[in-house]
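Whether sequence alone determines local backbone shape is best considered at the level of individual chains. Part of our work consisted of pairing the sequence of a single chain with a tokenised description of its backbone. This step matters because it turns folding into a mapping between discrete strings. For completeness, the protein is quoted in full, as a sequence line and a line of structure tokens:

_____
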Amino acid sequence: MAMITGDINRIYTKELQTFIGKRVGVLTIRDEKFIGIVKAFHPDNLTLILAEAFQEVDGKKIPFHKMFIYGSQIAKIYLEQEPFDIAGLAVELEKIFRRPGDIKLYEDQGLIVILDRVRVTEAGVE
């Protein structure tokens, strides 16, 4: 049973890592809504650090340069922006580079390698 729990924890942490650098909405157990960019999270208690954050109260945005939201206060976390479709990009690149093996997709890493030299991620091209 411990192995299954460990696997679930790793999967959960890995999924939450995909939110780092992304704009998210956070709804607290007190129905407060915060929007900001995830800078980090604590894997043990799920406390989030948000940058460029704000809270909407009565139609007004209250800005926060940086904030911590304790994991025990979080009811929901969701992406505010559409995720980058790395797999879709790989399909389009395969249409251009037609030889097998020219395009390698590492979806779990959010990475495409072209011709074993060029690396493409959501952040750009290396």
User: Anything to note?
Assistant: The mean pLDDT is 87.
